[in-house]
Write a structure and sequence with these properties.
The protein is an alpha/beta fold. Among the domains are: 149 residues, Rossmann fold, CATH 3.40.50; 70 residues, Orthogonal Bundle (Rna Polymerase Sigma Factor, Chain: A), CATH 1.10.1740. It has 17 helices and eleven strands. The protein has a seven-stranded parallel sheet with strand order 4-3-2-1-5-6-7, sandwiched between helices. Strands 9-8-10-11 form a four-stranded mixed sheet, with helices on one face. Helix 5 links the parallel strand 5 and strand 6. Helix 5 crosses helix 6 and helix 6 runs antiparallel to helix 15. Bound molecules: nicotinamide-adenine-dinucleotide and magnesium ion. Magnesium ion binds next to helix 8. The site of nicotinamide-adenine-dinucleotide has 26 residues, from helix 1, helix 6 and helix 11.
Length: 394
Protein backbone atom coordinates (compact mmCIF):
# COMPACT_ATOMS: atom_id res chain seq x y z
CA UNK A 1 0.00 0.00 0.00
CA UNK A 2 1.39 3.41 -0.97
CA UNK A 3 1.24 6.28 1.51
CA UNK A 4 -0.49 9.49 0.37
CA UNK A 5 1.69 12.58 0.89
CA UNK A 6 0.78 16.27 1.11
CA UNK A 7 3.65 18.77 1.05
CA UNK A 8 2.89 22.22 2.43
CA UNK A 9 5.53 24.45 0.80
CA UNK A 10 6.66 22.03 -1.92
CA UNK A 11 8.60 24.71 -3.85
CA UNK A 12 10.91 25.57 -0.93
CA UNK A 13 14.21 24.03 0.06
CA UNK A 14 12.61 21.36 2.30
CA UNK A 15 9.79 20.76 -0.19
CA UNK A 16 12.25 20.14 -3.05
CA UNK A 17 14.38 17.82 -0.87
CA UNK A 18 11.24 15.90 0.12
CA UNK A 19 10.33 15.38 -3.53
CA UNK A 20 13.92 14.18 -4.15
CA UNK A 21 13.42 11.47 -1.51
CA UNK A 22 9.97 10.55 -2.87
CA UNK A 23 11.44 10.25 -6.38
CA UNK A 24 13.94 7.69 -5.03
CA UNK A 25 11.20 5.65 -3.32
CA UNK A 26 8.40 5.96 -5.88
CA UNK A 27 6.72 2.65 -5.14
CA UNK A 28 6.09 3.56 -1.49
CA UNK A 29 4.31 6.94 -1.91
CA UNK A 30 1.69 8.75 -3.95
CA UNK A 31 1.79 12.55 -4.00
CA UNK A 32 -1.72 13.78 -3.15
CA UNK A 33 -1.25 17.53 -2.69
CA UNK A 34 1.43 20.15 -3.33
CA UNK A 35 1.27 23.79 -2.23
CA UNK A 36 3.25 26.93 -3.00
CA UNK A 37 3.01 30.63 -2.27
CA UNK A 38 4.31 32.44 -5.39
CA UNK A 39 6.55 30.12 -7.39
CA UNK A 40 3.93 29.01 -9.89
CA UNK A 41 6.47 27.82 -12.48
CA UNK A 42 8.13 25.35 -10.10
CA UNK A 43 4.74 24.17 -8.79
CA UNK A 44 3.68 23.56 -12.41
CA UNK A 45 6.81 21.47 -13.10
CA UNK A 46 6.25 19.51 -9.86
CA UNK A 47 2.61 18.84 -10.82
CA UNK A 48 3.63 17.59 -14.26
CA UNK A 49 6.17 15.22 -12.72
CA UNK A 50 4.24 13.97 -9.64
CA UNK A 51 0.61 14.38 -10.83
CA UNK A 52 -0.91 15.21 -7.44
CA UNK A 53 -4.70 15.21 -7.07
CA UNK A 54 -4.53 18.78 -5.73
CA UNK A 55 -2.28 21.82 -6.12
CA UNK A 56 -2.80 24.87 -3.91
CA UNK A 57 -1.60 28.40 -4.53
CA UNK A 58 -3.31 30.99 -2.28
CA UNK A 59 -3.59 33.92 -4.76
CA UNK A 60 -6.58 33.38 -7.09
CA UNK A 61 -4.85 34.96 -10.14
CA UNK A 62 -1.85 32.67 -9.81
CA UNK A 63 -4.16 29.69 -9.31
CA UNK A 64 -6.01 30.59 -12.52
CA UNK A 65 -2.71 30.82 -14.44
CA UNK A 66 -1.67 27.42 -13.10
CA UNK A 67 -5.06 25.91 -14.05
CA UNK A 68 -4.67 27.14 -17.63
CA UNK A 69 -1.13 25.79 -17.94
CA UNK A 70 -2.11 22.41 -16.51
CA UNK A 71 -5.15 22.03 -18.79
CA UNK A 72 -3.23 20.66 -21.74
CA UNK A 73 -0.45 18.98 -19.79
CA UNK A 74 0.12 15.42 -18.52
CA UNK A 75 -1.31 16.59 -15.18
CA UNK A 76 -4.67 17.81 -16.54
CA UNK A 77 -6.46 15.94 -13.71
CA UNK A 78 -4.77 17.95 -10.96
CA UNK A 79 -7.37 20.18 -9.27
CA UNK A 80 -6.01 23.66 -8.54
CA UNK A 81 -7.31 25.39 -5.41
CA UNK A 82 -6.73 28.94 -4.16
CA UNK A 83 -7.35 30.72 -0.84
CA UNK A 84 -5.55 30.30 2.47
CA UNK A 85 -8.17 27.84 3.74
CA UNK A 86 -7.31 25.37 0.98
CA UNK A 87 -3.85 24.92 2.55
CA UNK A 88 -5.55 23.46 5.62
CA UNK A 89 -8.22 21.51 3.76
CA UNK A 90 -5.77 19.52 1.62
CA UNK A 91 -4.05 18.25 4.77
CA UNK A 92 -7.37 16.77 5.93
CA UNK A 93 -8.08 14.68 2.81
CA UNK A 94 -8.81 11.06 3.55
CA UNK A 95 -6.20 9.84 1.02
CA UNK A 96 -3.48 11.90 2.78
CA UNK A 97 -1.51 9.84 5.32
CA UNK A 98 1.58 12.04 5.68
CA UNK A 99 1.74 15.85 5.82
CA UNK A 100 5.11 17.54 5.41
CA UNK A 101 4.86 20.97 7.08
CA UNK A 102 7.48 22.96 5.16
CA UNK A 103 5.98 26.46 4.89
CA UNK A 104 8.28 29.09 6.35
CA UNK A 105 7.14 31.23 9.28
CA UNK A 106 3.94 31.59 11.29
CA UNK A 107 2.06 31.51 7.94
CA UNK A 108 2.29 27.72 8.24
CA UNK A 109 0.56 27.54 11.63
CA UNK A 110 -3.07 26.94 10.62
CA UNK A 111 -2.46 24.24 7.98
CA UNK A 112 0.03 22.50 10.30
CA UNK A 113 -2.53 22.57 13.09
CA UNK A 114 -5.20 21.23 10.71
CA UNK A 115 -2.95 18.25 9.91
CA UNK A 116 -2.44 17.65 13.65
CA UNK A 117 -6.18 17.84 14.35
CA UNK A 118 -6.86 15.43 11.49
CA UNK A 119 -4.60 12.82 13.15
CA UNK A 120 -2.10 12.60 10.29
CA UNK A 121 1.54 11.58 10.39
CA UNK A 122 2.94 15.11 10.63
CA UNK A 123 6.54 15.77 9.56
CA UNK A 124 7.43 19.14 11.04
CA UNK A 125 10.03 21.38 9.41
CA UNK A 126 8.04 24.57 10.04
CA UNK A 127 9.50 25.25 13.51
CA UNK A 128 7.85 28.68 13.72
CA UNK A 129 4.41 26.99 13.81
CA UNK A 130 5.43 25.11 16.98
CA UNK A 131 7.21 28.11 18.54
CA UNK A 132 4.07 30.22 18.11
CA UNK A 133 1.53 27.65 19.28
CA UNK A 134 3.58 25.46 21.68
CA UNK A 135 1.35 23.37 23.95
CA UNK A 136 -1.67 24.03 21.71
CA UNK A 137 -0.11 22.14 18.78
CA UNK A 138 1.28 19.42 21.08
CA UNK A 139 -2.12 18.83 22.67
CA UNK A 140 -3.81 18.75 19.22
CA UNK A 141 -1.35 15.97 18.33
CA UNK A 142 -2.05 13.96 21.47
CA UNK A 143 -5.84 14.43 21.30
CA UNK A 144 -6.17 13.30 17.68
CA UNK A 145 -3.56 10.54 17.94
CA UNK A 146 -1.45 12.17 15.21
CA UNK A 147 2.18 11.06 14.91
CA UNK A 148 4.56 14.00 15.10
CA UNK A 149 8.05 13.52 13.67
CA UNK A 150 10.61 16.32 13.61
CA UNK A 151 12.40 17.13 10.33
CA UNK A 152 14.65 19.83 11.72
CA UNK A 153 18.01 18.06 11.63
CA UNK A 154 18.79 18.64 15.33
CA UNK A 155 15.37 17.51 16.54
CA UNK A 156 15.31 14.57 14.19
CA UNK A 157 18.72 13.60 15.63
CA UNK A 158 17.39 13.92 19.20
CA UNK A 159 14.32 11.88 18.27
CA UNK A 160 16.59 9.14 16.90
CA UNK A 161 18.56 9.16 20.19
CA UNK A 162 15.42 8.72 22.33
CA UNK A 163 14.53 5.39 23.98
CA UNK A 164 12.74 2.75 21.86
CA UNK A 165 9.02 3.41 21.45
CA UNK A 166 9.42 7.12 22.13
CA UNK A 167 6.70 9.47 20.79
CA UNK A 168 7.16 13.24 20.42
CA UNK A 169 5.66 15.14 23.34
CA UNK A 170 6.63 12.56 25.96
CA UNK A 171 9.23 13.38 28.61
CA UNK A 172 11.61 10.40 28.37
CA UNK A 173 13.03 9.15 31.68
CA UNK A 174 16.74 9.22 32.49
CA UNK A 175 17.75 12.26 30.47
CA UNK A 176 20.11 14.82 32.03
CA UNK A 177 19.99 17.25 29.12
CA UNK A 178 19.59 17.72 25.39
CA UNK A 179 22.59 19.12 23.54
CA UNK A 180 21.62 21.02 20.40
CA UNK A 181 24.52 21.58 18.05
CA UNK A 182 24.84 24.80 16.03
CA UNK A 183 27.15 25.44 13.10
CA UNK A 184 27.63 29.05 14.23
CA UNK A 185 26.61 30.23 10.73
CA UNK A 186 28.64 32.34 8.31
CA UNK A 187 29.70 34.88 10.98
CA UNK A 188 31.12 32.59 13.64
CA UNK A 189 34.16 34.46 15.09
CA UNK A 190 33.15 37.73 13.34
CA UNK A 191 33.32 40.65 15.80
CA UNK A 192 30.41 42.95 16.62
CA UNK A 193 31.79 45.94 14.69
CA UNK A 194 32.23 43.89 11.51
CA UNK A 195 28.70 42.47 11.87
CA UNK A 196 27.23 45.96 11.40
CA UNK A 197 28.50 45.95 7.79
CA UNK A 198 27.44 42.49 6.59
CA UNK A 199 25.38 42.18 3.41
CA UNK A 200 22.29 40.09 2.64
CA UNK A 201 24.34 37.88 0.30
CA UNK A 202 26.91 37.21 3.05
CA UNK A 203 24.20 36.44 5.62
CA UNK A 204 22.48 34.00 3.24
CA UNK A 205 25.67 32.10 2.38
CA UNK A 206 25.56 29.35 5.00
CA UNK A 207 28.84 27.41 5.20
CA UNK A 208 27.31 23.89 5.50
CA UNK A 209 23.59 23.90 4.64
CA UNK A 210 21.69 25.13 1.59
CA UNK A 211 18.37 26.56 2.83
CA UNK A 212 15.67 29.20 2.25
CA UNK A 213 16.63 32.86 2.87
CA UNK A 214 14.75 33.34 6.14
CA UNK A 215 16.30 30.37 7.94
CA UNK A 216 19.71 31.28 6.50
CA UNK A 217 19.51 34.74 8.12
CA UNK A 218 18.20 33.12 11.33
CA UNK A 219 21.23 30.83 11.33
CA UNK A 220 23.53 33.82 10.91
CA UNK A 221 21.96 35.70 13.88
CA UNK A 222 21.67 32.44 15.93
CA UNK A 223 17.92 33.09 16.22
CA UNK A 224 17.50 29.78 14.40
CA UNK A 225 19.12 28.05 17.37
CA UNK A 226 16.95 30.08 19.74
CA UNK A 227 13.80 28.98 17.90
CA UNK A 228 15.15 25.42 18.00
CA UNK A 229 15.62 25.56 21.79
CA UNK A 230 11.93 26.47 22.09
CA UNK A 231 11.01 23.79 19.52
CA UNK A 232 12.99 21.16 21.49
CA UNK A 233 11.35 22.19 24.74
CA UNK A 234 7.86 21.42 23.35
CA UNK A 235 8.80 18.37 21.30
CA UNK A 236 10.67 16.60 24.09
CA UNK A 237 8.92 18.16 27.12
CA UNK A 238 12.12 19.64 28.55
CA UNK A 239 12.69 22.88 30.50
CA UNK A 240 14.96 25.64 29.21
CA UNK A 241 17.69 24.67 31.71
CA UNK A 242 17.73 21.10 30.34
CA UNK A 243 18.64 22.27 26.83
CA UNK A 244 22.20 23.29 26.02
CA UNK A 245 23.55 24.77 22.80
CA UNK A 246 27.01 23.82 21.61
CA UNK A 247 28.68 25.34 18.55
CA UNK A 248 29.99 22.61 16.26
CA UNK A 249 31.20 24.25 13.02
CA UNK A 250 31.42 21.02 10.97
CA UNK A 251 27.66 20.18 11.30
CA UNK A 252 28.40 16.44 11.44
CA UNK A 253 27.04 15.70 14.93
CA UNK A 254 23.44 16.81 14.48
CA UNK A 255 22.60 16.81 18.24
CA UNK A 256 22.99 14.65 21.36
CA UNK A 257 21.05 13.28 24.32
CA UNK A 258 22.95 13.21 27.62
CA UNK A 259 21.60 10.42 29.89
CA UNK A 260 22.00 10.32 33.69
CA UNK A 261 24.21 7.21 33.55
CA UNK A 262 26.89 9.17 31.65
CA UNK A 263 25.96 7.86 28.18
CA UNK A 264 25.72 10.46 25.47
CA UNK A 265 23.91 9.36 22.31
CA UNK A 266 24.52 11.33 19.12
CA UNK A 267 23.27 11.09 15.55
CA UNK A 268 25.92 11.85 12.91
CA UNK A 269 25.81 12.25 9.16
CA UNK A 270 26.38 14.57 6.23
CA UNK A 271 24.64 17.93 6.54
CA UNK A 272 21.89 17.05 4.06
CA UNK A 273 18.19 17.40 4.88
CA UNK A 274 17.32 14.34 2.79
CA UNK A 275 18.52 12.18 5.73
CA UNK A 276 16.00 13.44 8.34
CA UNK A 277 13.30 13.64 5.64
CA UNK A 278 13.86 10.01 4.56
CA UNK A 279 13.99 8.90 8.21
CA UNK A 280 10.72 10.58 9.15
CA UNK A 281 8.87 9.52 5.98
CA UNK A 282 9.79 5.86 6.50
CA UNK A 283 9.68 5.81 10.33
CA UNK A 284 9.74 3.33 12.01
CA UNK A 285 11.45 1.73 8.98
CA UNK A 286 14.45 3.00 7.02
CA UNK A 287 14.80 3.85 3.34
CA UNK A 288 17.34 5.33 0.90
CA UNK A 289 17.72 9.09 0.95
CA UNK A 290 20.33 9.58 -1.76
CA UNK A 291 22.84 10.76 0.88
CA UNK A 292 26.22 9.04 0.88
CA UNK A 293 27.76 7.62 4.05
CA UNK A 294 29.89 9.88 6.18
CA UNK A 295 33.60 9.37 5.59
CA UNK A 296 35.28 9.72 9.00
CA UNK A 297 38.79 9.90 7.54
CA UNK A 298 37.99 13.02 5.55
CA UNK A 299 35.88 14.42 8.41
CA UNK A 300 38.35 13.71 11.19
CA UNK A 301 38.21 17.06 12.96
CA UNK A 302 35.08 17.51 15.04
CA UNK A 303 35.26 20.58 17.28
CA UNK A 304 32.95 22.15 19.86
CA UNK A 305 32.78 25.57 21.50
CA UNK A 306 30.41 27.70 23.57
CA UNK A 307 28.06 30.12 21.77
CA UNK A 308 28.91 33.82 22.08
CA UNK A 309 25.80 35.46 23.58
CA UNK A 310 27.36 38.89 23.56
CA UNK A 311 27.89 39.01 19.79
CA UNK A 312 24.74 36.94 19.03
CA UNK A 313 22.08 38.08 21.56
CA UNK A 314 19.18 36.29 19.77
CA UNK A 315 19.90 33.02 21.55
CA UNK A 316 19.53 34.69 24.98
CA UNK A 317 16.32 36.43 23.85
CA UNK A 318 14.83 33.07 22.85
CA UNK A 319 15.79 31.42 26.17
CA UNK A 320 14.15 34.34 27.99
CA UNK A 321 10.96 34.03 25.93
CA UNK A 322 10.84 30.30 26.64
CA UNK A 323 11.20 30.90 30.38
CA UNK A 324 8.54 33.63 30.29
CA UNK A 325 6.15 31.26 28.41
CA UNK A 326 2.64 32.50 27.48
CA UNK A 327 2.67 34.44 24.22
CA UNK A 328 6.36 35.45 24.64
CA UNK A 329 7.64 32.86 22.08
CA UNK A 330 4.95 34.01 19.58
CA UNK A 331 6.02 37.64 20.08
CA UNK A 332 9.72 36.74 19.70
CA UNK A 333 8.96 34.88 16.47
CA UNK A 334 6.73 37.58 14.96
CA UNK A 335 9.24 40.36 15.73
CA UNK A 336 12.01 38.26 14.25
CA UNK A 337 10.03 37.57 11.06
CA UNK A 338 9.44 41.32 10.59
CA UNK A 339 13.08 42.21 11.34
CA UNK A 340 14.50 39.51 9.03
CA UNK A 341 12.21 40.70 6.24
CA UNK A 342 13.46 44.26 6.92
CA UNK A 343 17.06 43.10 6.66
CA UNK A 344 16.38 41.10 3.47
CA UNK A 345 14.78 44.26 1.95
CA UNK A 346 17.87 46.19 3.04
CA UNK A 347 15.77 48.54 5.26
CA UNK A 348 17.71 47.69 8.44
CA UNK A 349 21.19 46.37 9.24
CA UNK A 350 21.98 42.83 10.36
CA UNK A 351 22.76 44.04 13.91
CA UNK A 352 19.38 45.79 14.14
CA UNK A 353 17.55 42.43 14.02
CA UNK A 354 18.15 41.50 17.70
CA UNK A 355 17.51 45.11 18.75
CA UNK A 356 14.05 45.11 17.07
CA UNK A 357 13.22 41.74 18.64
CA UNK A 358 14.34 42.82 22.12
CA UNK A 359 12.39 46.10 22.02
CA UNK A 360 9.26 44.30 20.83
CA UNK A 361 9.54 41.69 23.60
CA UNK A 362 9.99 44.41 26.22
CA UNK A 363 6.97 46.44 25.15
CA UNK A 364 4.47 43.76 24.05
CA UNK A 365 1.97 42.57 26.64
CA UNK A 366 2.52 38.87 27.27
CA UNK A 367 -0.64 36.90 28.05
CA UNK A 368 -1.54 33.21 28.45
CA UNK A 369 -1.19 31.25 25.19
CA UNK A 370 -4.41 29.38 25.89
CA UNK A 371 -6.06 29.51 22.47
CA UNK A 372 -5.13 29.86 18.81
CA UNK A 373 -6.92 33.26 18.55
CA UNK A 374 -4.81 34.44 21.55
CA UNK A 375 -1.51 33.50 19.88
CA UNK A 376 -2.60 34.92 16.51
CA UNK A 377 -3.54 38.20 18.23
CA UNK A 378 -0.14 38.31 19.98
CA UNK A 379 1.51 37.62 16.62
CA UNK A 380 -0.29 40.52 14.86
CA UNK A 381 0.31 42.99 17.70
CA UNK A 382 4.00 42.08 17.81
CA UNK A 383 4.30 42.59 14.04
CA UNK A 384 2.90 46.14 14.36
CA UNK A 385 5.23 46.95 17.26
CA UNK A 386 8.26 45.53 15.45
CA UNK A 387 7.44 47.60 12.34
CA UNK A 388 7.32 50.73 14.51
CA UNK A 389 10.68 49.97 16.13
CA UNK A 390 12.18 49.16 12.76
CA UNK A 391 11.37 52.64 11.47
CA UNK A 392 13.84 54.05 13.99
CA UNK A 393 16.66 52.20 12.21
CA UNK A 394 15.68 53.01 8.60
P1 LIG B 1 11.85 28.24 1.73
O1 LIG B 1 11.72 29.71 1.82
O2 LIG B 1 12.86 27.66 0.83
O3 LIG B 1 10.40 27.62 1.33
C1 LIG B 1 9.23 28.01 1.96
C2 LIG B 1 8.03 27.35 1.30
O4 LIG B 1 6.86 27.89 1.94
C3 LIG B 1 7.86 27.66 -0.18
O5 LIG B 1 7.29 26.56 -0.83
C4 LIG B 1 6.87 28.83 -0.20
O6 LIG B 1 6.11 28.87 -1.40
C5 LIG B 1 6.00 28.50 0.99
N1 LIG B 1 5.44 29.70 1.61
C6 LIG B 1 6.11 30.80 2.05
N2 LIG B 1 5.27 31.70 2.56
C7 LIG B 1 4.03 31.17 2.45
C8 LIG B 1 2.72 31.64 2.78
N3 LIG B 1 2.53 32.85 3.34
N4 LIG B 1 1.68 30.83 2.54
C9 LIG B 1 1.84 29.62 1.96
N5 LIG B 1 3.05 29.13 1.61
C10 LIG B 1 4.13 29.89 1.86
O7 LIG B 1 12.05 27.72 3.22
P2 LIG B 1 12.78 26.38 3.72
O8 LIG B 1 14.22 26.65 3.89
O9 LIG B 1 12.33 25.23 2.91
O10 LIG B 1 12.17 26.26 5.19
C11 LIG B 1 10.85 25.82 5.42
C12 LIG B 1 10.67 25.57 6.91
O11 LIG B 1 11.52 24.50 7.29
C13 LIG B 1 11.08 26.76 7.78
O12 LIG B 1 10.24 26.83 8.90
C14 LIG B 1 12.49 26.41 8.24
O13 LIG B 1 12.82 26.96 9.48
C15 LIG B 1 12.39 24.90 8.33
N6 LIG B 1 13.68 24.20 8.16
C16 LIG B 1 14.35 24.32 6.99
C17 LIG B 1 15.58 23.67 6.83
C18 LIG B 1 16.33 23.74 5.52
O14 LIG B 1 17.36 23.07 5.38
N7 LIG B 1 15.88 24.49 4.54
C19 LIG B 1 16.10 22.92 7.88
C20 LIG B 1 15.38 22.81 9.06
C21 LIG B 1 14.16 23.46 9.19
MG1 LIG C 1 17.98 22.94 12.44
Amino acid sequence: MTKGVCILGSTGSIGVSTLDVLRLNKAAYSVQALTANKNMDLLLAQCIEFKPNYAVIPEPELAEKLRKKLQHSDAADTVVLSGEDSLASVTELQQVDIVVAAIVGAAGLLPTLAAANAGKKLLLANKEALVVSGDLLMSAVSKSGATLLPLDSEHNALFQCMPAGYRAGQCAAGIRKLILTASGGPFLHTNKAALAQVTVAQACAHPNWSMGKKISVDSATMMNKGLEVIEASYLFDMRADQIEVLVHPQSIVHSMVDYIDGSILAQLGQPDMRTPIAHALAWPDRQYSGVSALDFLSNNQLSFEAPNDEVFPCLRLAYNALKEKGTAPAVLNAANEVAVEGFLNESIRFVDIPAVVEKTLTSASIVAADSIPAVLQADSEARLLAQQFMRAYQ
